[in-house]
UniProtKB/TrEMBL annotation:
<keyword id="KW-0732">Signal</keyword>
<dbReference type="InterPro" id="IPR006311">
    <property type="entry name" value="TAT_signal"/>
</dbReference>
<protein>
    <recommendedName>
        <fullName>DUF1501 domain-containing protein</fullName>
    </recommendedName>
</protein>
<dbReference type="Pfam" id="PF07394">
    <property type="entry name" value="DUF1501"/>
</dbReference>
<feature type="signal peptide">
    <location>
        <begin position="1"/>
        <end position="32"/>
    </location>
</feature>
<dbReference type="InterPro" id="IPR010869">
    <property type="entry name" value="DUF1501"/>
</dbReference>
């Protein structure tokens, strides 16, 4: 799955207008769990004038977490350097961090992320080690013997991006519509928490994605530039004729579904136009467009920062949109570092760090820092050993969570033993996750307001694991 931000304007309009249709088989089929979701809605309906938002930042390609979070103590660093060889970051360049808990030895962050290191030290950011796609706990012995039950196509970008976002093992003949756990979360809470909403609560700043597609709710893709509905400077009459056509119901079910989808998208963009135009500009300064010849990091900071800036703007107008709950999806590509990793990853991480720092500051300026939680995602990690100029697809990864409600300056999950023969790594060198995406997501969902009994509706593999709340978010 890729996100192309260079498509011409007309194609981009059609793509975003049809984004709901891509997952819109909910028009034609009713999932077996819909009655359960309806019952859960009733339980959630009286909860809350409070506001909360989740912001997913997906690092497309598989970020190398082994160089994001690095052992800094001499003995452990020596093992790291021996295993990584050409991918080793010099020990003296690591940014030291001082976790309050969860660290088995001294740790450091990649030198390209000073803003993230600062956020960690000021308790706004937590690290979560060894996270990955799991159906059940997996031991090294079971993996090496081939007896472990594993997610489908474990090292495939597209398959793992999909599984990370939907957590469903689907049969080729499955008739129930696919959905993502962010979409199922919207199914559960939208009616109860956003009764006066004028817009979908799931808002993507990075194109269509499986994560936000619900069984009964659909996301809206929002441009990071000027918001437009229908316009035709050369022939306004053609635009008017098109809208007149959209106002007329069609006999054919598919044609009418298409009509309603397009009309709904146009109405949504008009709502966005009006609401954003009336809002004061953000006080926070986000990374601007890169100058000619600027480092690649400037481009990455702008690419992600533009998405996060628009998310901050949508948070600022939440009351006008009737939103007490929002879920955002942002993405930054380029992390598939099979080669040139020591050149490319520092630029990617530097841009990521700057954009996230600006966004967190925006939530502070808007006085919602403790109401907005940003979490990292990536389809898989990368191999501990070098392939000569980079790293290959692997499994478990190290992630981070950012926000005022985060139990910051702490490490959660598992910091693996990097030594050869460690139980944390399979025989082929892949890091075996000790934290399932279901657990990671369930912790976010509990903070978002979902009760424990409803979690299995959102996270189908959760019951295979003993812990559903990892503790990296304070309740409230």
């Amino acid at each position: 799955m890729t996100f192309d931000r260079t498509v011409p304007g007309r194609r981009r309009f059609l793509r975003r207008s049809l984004a709901a249709l891509a997952g819109g088989s909910g028009f034609f089929a009713v999932p077996a769990s819909l009655s359960l979701l309806n019952a859960a809605w009733a339980q959630q309906a009286d909860r809350g004038a409070d506001y909360k938002a989740l912001v997913c930042v997906f690092l497309l390609g598989g970020n190398d977490g082994h160089n994001l979070l690095v052992p800094r103590s001499n003995a452990e660093y020596a093992v790291y350097a021996h295993r990584r060889r050409g991918l080793t970051i010099p020990q003296q360049q690591l940014l030291p961090i001082s976790p309050l808990s969860g660290a088995p030895h001294a740790l450091g962050l990649h030198p390209a992320v000073p803003e993230l290191a600062q956020l960690f030290e000021t308790r706004a950011l937590a690290l979560v080690g060894s996270v990955g796609a799991l159906l059940e706990p997996v031991s090294r012995q079971a993996y090496d013997q081939g007896s472990a039950r594993l997610p489908p196509q474990l090292f495939s970008h597209n398959d793992q991006q999909d599984f990370w976002q939907n957590l469903e093992v689907r049969s080729p003949v499955e008739s129930t519509p696919a959905s993502g756990w962010g979409g199922r979360l919207a199914d559960l809470v939208h009616a109860g928490h956003n009764p006066g909403a004028t817009l979908a609560m799931n808002l993507s700043l990075a194109g269509s994605n499986p994560f936000q597609v619900g069984r009964t709710t659909q996301p809206l893709t929002v441009d990071t530039g000027p918001i437009r509905a229908v316009e035709n400077d050369r022939d306004p009459a053609a635009a008017a004729a098109f809208e007149a056509f959209l106002a007329q119901p069609q006999v054919n079910l598919l044609a009418d579904t298409y009509r309603r989808t397009i009309k709904g998208a146009i109405d949504d963009y008009r709502t966005l136009q009006a609401v954003l135009a009336a809002a004061p500009p953000l006080a926070t300064v986000f990374p601007g467009p890169p100058a000619i010849g600027a480092p690649a990091a400037d481009g990455f900071a702008y690419a992600l920062g533009s998405q996060l800036r628009r998310a901050a703007e949508l948070i600022a107008v939440r009351e006008a949109l009737g939103h007490r709950r929002q879920i955002f999806f942002c993405a930054l590509g380029g992390f598939d570092t099979h080669d040139l990793q020591m050149t490319d990853q520092p630029q990617l991480l530097a841009g990521l760090s700057r954009a996230l720092h600006a966004f967190y500051q925006a939530t502070v300026d808007l006085r919602v820092a403790d109401r907005v939680t940003t979490f990292a995602a990536s389809e898989f990690g990368r191999s501990l050993t070098s392939n000569g100029d980079g790293s290959d697809h692997s499994w478990g990864n190290h992630l981070f969570v950012l926000g005022g409600a985060v139990e910051g300056r702490r490490v959660f999950g598992n910091i693996p033993d990097l030594a050869l023969g460690s139980a944390d790594f399979a025989g082929d060198g892949n890091l075996i996750p000790r934290v399932a995406v279901d657990q990671y997501g369930a912790t976010l969902a509990r903070w978002f307001g979902v009760d424990a009994a409803s979690l299995p509706l959102l996270f189908p593999n959760l019951q295979a694991f003993g812990q559903s709340d990892l503790g990296f978010l304070r309740p409230g």
